[in-house]
Structures are given as C-alpha cells and as structure tokens.
Amino acid sequence: MGSRAHRILLIEDTAPLARLYMEFMRAEAYDVAHAETGRDALAAAEARPPDGVILDLKLPDMEGLDVLRILRERDPDVSVIVVTAHGSVGVAVEAMRCGAFDFLVKPFTAERLNVTLRNALERRSLARMVDGYRRDLDRDRFHGFIGASPEMQAVYRTIESVAASRASVFITGESGTGKEVAAEAIHQASPRRGKPFVALNCAAIPKDLLESEIFGHVRGAFTGATADRVGAAAQADGGTLFLDEVCEMPFDLQAKLLRFIQTGVIQPVGSSRAEKVDVRFVAATNRDPLREVEEGRFREDLYYRLHVIPLHLPPLRDRGGDALLIARALLADCAREEGRRFTAFAPEVEAAFRSCDWPGNIRQMQNVVRQIVVLHDGEVVTADMLPPPLRGGGATPRRAAAVPVAAQGVPPADPAEETITPLWRLEKDMIQRALRLCGDDVPRAASLLEISPSTIYRKLQQWKTDGDGGGG
C-alpha cells in the first residue's frame, strides 16, 4: 500500500461528530483532513487527492450525492464511505449505485469505521494493481519497441526494473531481434537519460583498431594516429556504453575491458595518463556466451562481470501477433519516407506475414517491407507485390519449435507399426534431454534447440500443472 500514511478526507459539518470520528481513526495513523462543506471538501480534494473519503450525505451547501459524483469523476478509484441516519438508508443505497464503496448508519463504533475504511483502502489498492496489469497487457509500444505479446511485456518489465540500477545488463537474442533498441530503452528509462548513449559494434571494427575505438588514443600512438582521439568510454562518461557483439572482442582486449569495468579507469592507447569515467555497461551477443566461455573464446571473469542482469529478446516467430503490429508500423514509416500511398495489407498478405518464420527477425521484415514500398505503389499491399520468398505463402516456412531437434535420432516409421508417439511426448522428451545435457541451463538449452527460453519455461509450467499425463 505504500510507505506514506493514507490520506483520508472527512466531510462532516457537525463539529462534535467530526472530532469523534477523528478520534476513532487516531489508532490507524491516517493523515486526516476535515472539511465542513461540500465546496471546501472539493477544494481540499483537488489540492491533496485523498485515498479514502468519509462523506456525510447531509451538508449545508451541497447534496452529498453531488459531492460523491464529482469526487468519482476526478478519481474513479477513490474509496468513498457515506454516513447516513437510520431513516436515510435508501439514499445510502443510491450513493452506492453512484460509486460509493460502503455506508455507515449512525451511530457506529470505532471498530466499525476502521474495518470499513481498511476494506475500502484495500479495494483501492487492488484496483490500481489490476489497472497497472491491464496497462501492461495493453502496452504495444515501449521506448522504440513495438509488440504487445506476453513475451515482450516481460521484456518491458525487466527493462523498467533494471533501468535505475548501475548493474551491467547482458542482452542475448538472435540477429535482428532489437538488442540495440533494448540497450537504448534501458538508457532512456534510467536516470542517465540526459547523458550520452554510445554504441560500439565489436564485430564491425577491425581488431587492431578496437582498443582505440573503446579507450581512445593520442597522436602518434600508431601509424595513422595523426591526432588525439576520444574513445567510446570517455564519450559515454555519465551515460551508457553499449558493447554490441561483445563475444567478437579479441581475447587480449577482453583483459583490458575487465580492468576498466573493475576500476572505472581508462588509458588511451599511447598515453601514460589514466582517466576516471563513470559509465553503465550494457553488452549484447547473438551467440551463446556460456559456450564461448567453455570453448575458451571469452573470458569467464569478464562474462560474470557483464552478465549481472540477463535479458533475452525473443525471436519474432515466438511473439504471436507482434509480427503484424510491426509490419503495419514499418509500412507506414516506409510509405511516408518514400512518398507512397500504402496504408494497409491485403488479408492474404497479412496471412503470409503471420505464417513466415522470419529467420532474420525484424531486420528481415524491414527489408521485405522496404522492397515492397520502393518497387510498388497503391493503397493496399497485395499478394503479387510480395517478393518471391513470401509470394504464394511459400516460402520461409515456419519452424516447429522442437521438430528439427526431435527429428534427429528418430528411426524411420515402420508402415506396419500401429503405435504412434504423440508429438507433445516427443517434444517433452527432447526438451528434458536438452536440459539434462545442459545442466538445467534453460537459455543454453533453448539456444541449442533453436527456440525461445520463454517457450521452455512455459512448457515446464504447463507440464507441472498438467502432471505427467498431459501434453496440452
């Protein structure tokens, strides 16, 4: 319910009763404000919105029901308890139809008042929690991301949870899933948003220049160093340094990066001067980082320094209806940039987009939509405008989650054999085998099975719920 005391607005024009009710509430340590008229009450509620209201329906200047309606219009979740005399119970019932939580008939005890008030405040708290959950479910855009699927809602919540921290975040996911978008989202949601966000792709820079790109260099440090250069680490001072494809970093440079992470100190190439900088590290890779460690290509101590908070981005094929949401947004953007008239996809085109596996994820979809818009024009994208891989529903077939792996080692079917193993059983056996071989490391097992970790977590929960006999 929060750390501050709940604000209660008591609206009662009879001074002795007001003092009595305030005495009743003293033990609960509420922050109580008192108003004797409807107008004063509405002004007080506007200045300091209350969590709960105790409202006497008989006021000298306004009808209590009018006060109730205005309070509810301002804050639909405010919990209002109306107070009435024995002969006015019908009015109290009408007040509840207008949104009051409950009513109290005079006279009442302190216990009756406080129990009713506690129930009202708990109801308000639950209502706000449900509203927040619904907003999460309805959220289809988030700091550059487009998607309303449960998998993406989990990503959004993780980003919101870690943004304020200084802890390093390690993003994994297939190429084209939006790892740099996630890194920028972490930065934009953090207190560092006003400082630089500097992204460095470790795979796109020649290995002999990567150290200079990160730490900078001084003039004459090497052939071609004709002037001092500020590296990405210094540029990101106070902000966020994003190291994309970090597993591509040369092994000897990894030791220098580890020392930088541990000390916060950098030394430009060719310089004897050390500099202190303050950066938040976000790293990303489309590889399995643990396998890179096991095979000796990535330092284990660096892995654990960077892999403080893991964030996995699901592939587009595991995000349900997000594919169409993204495709429509891309179509609108591309049409505007290219001066085309497109506003929608034909139903058969939407079906092709939904059924496509998108092995290149969002980057592949961007290329497809851009190609359609550049080569054609019209208001609706039709099937004949689709590039060959998608035309006619053909082409990039959707992979079944466990079929490519499950098929390995399965003997050819005997035409005379009458017993067929259910597909869910094959899938379950293969996932359990992968987990066993990977030491129950779900992200690694998912990578080897070429499925999303969320798929494994969902299956495990489903099997736990169903027991051993159901496949769902």
TrEMBL record:
| Superkingdom of the source species | Bacteria
- InterPro entries for this protein: AAA+_ATPase (IPR003593), AAA_lid_NorR (IPR058031), CheY-like_superfamily (IPR011006), Homeodomain-like_sf (IPR009057), HTH_Fis (IPR002197), P-loop_NTPase (IPR027417), Sig_transdc_resp-reg_receiver (IPR001789), Sigma_54_int (IPR002078)
Where's the Sigma-54 factor interaction domain? Answer: 145-374
Domain Response regulatory residues, every copy:
7-121
Q: Which UniProt keywords apply?
A: Activator, ATP-binding, DNA-binding, Nucleotide-binding, Phosphoprotein, Transcription, Transcription regulation, Two-component regulatory system
The modified positions for 4-aspartylphosphate read: 56
Which Pfam families does the UniProt record give?
AAA_lid_14, HTH_8, Response_reg, Sigma54_activat
Q: What is this protein called?
A: Two-component system repressor protein LuxO
Q: What organism, scientifically named, is this protein from?
A: Azospirillum rugosum
Source lineage: Bacteria, Pseudomonadati, Pseudomonadota, Alphaproteobacteria, Rhodospirillales
